[in-house]
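User: Hello! My lab partner asked me to get a predicted holo structure for this protein. The small molecule is S-adenosylmethionine, SMILES included with the sequence. Please write out the structure tokens.
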Amino acid sequence: MYVISTNDDRRPDAIWFLPHFSVQDRSSRSDLDGSDEPVPHMNPAAGAPDAWSGSEYRENTAHHRAFDPPALWAFGLGAGDFLLDVGCGAGDLTAALADHYPQARVIGIDASPSQIEQARQHERPRLRYEVRRVQDLGWEKRFAAVVSIACLHWVPIPEHPLVLERIFHALVPGGRLVASFAGETNIVEIRKIIFSVADQPPYRQYLGGRLPHHPWPSLPRYREMLADSPFGGAEELRTETQPRPFSRARLTGWLRTQTLTGYRPRLPPSVFEDLVAEVSEKVAEETRAGDGVYVVPFVRLQLQARRGKTAI
Ligand SMILES: C[S@@+](CC[C@H](N)C(=O)[O-])C[C@H]1O[C@@H](n2cnc3c(N)ncnc32)[C@H](O)[C@@H]1O
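Assistant: Hello! Below are the structure tokens for the protein in complex with S-adenosylmethionine.
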């Protein structure tokens, strides 16, 4: 158990001024490949460097936006409602949500300072961003809606019970969580390509056989975790296959700014660029689907849960 103290109920906009809570982090172990050594990016609070580049990521979010769940736009939020975007990245979706719910107050959090620096360019009244890990959420009964797109698969599976607990507590009773994140078989062939390239010279000498990826949850495993969480289950939990089309340039952009991002802090810059080029060439061969079109088989777990409801 952990204790969350909030003393911000006196003013409706006080959420913007909440300090970061200091709560015992039960999740400091980065359980990736049997080692305790922190792996870049995967567990930012463990002292690992920030692998993300907000300015580069910003140019490569369109493939996510094309597959955002329709439920994001159907919360029906009004004045006095708060919405939280967990792992908001460069903040474009968060800003679009603030446009869509003009009466609500919207906050985006992300573990990456670089992403939040980029996101803050969208800031305006009722829209704020801050550096915070989802594991460190400290709000209690604050948000009518919590959304999280393409973020939770960056959190190691053993930390998901804590994450679900924190999000549950941040929701008002009846508040809803809509999340979309990688499932077990996401880009499985592409991951094989990445692993085989990264395990060869010259990359291997820097990576030492330790690859910054961890397993992603299967549907049955996540169903169990939700049942064991304070949510008690989900209103919707399903696997969705999303064949995402990329141009050649966007394919490399996606690999460079997202899929390979965990490798960046562990490689000299020129070696990282070589890795991107080599992986991109092989992934292009694997995914070529026609004239200048490359289709990547994303597999997402699509989740909707409500605080106070237990049906699954
Ligand atoms: C692929 S980006 C998705 C960004 C955005 N949601 C979007 O759809 O464009 C994943 C983001 O999750 C963030 N992230 C990873 N682990 C996190 C954590 N433990 N807490 C908060 N954010 C995290 C990363 O810093 C990164 O910005």
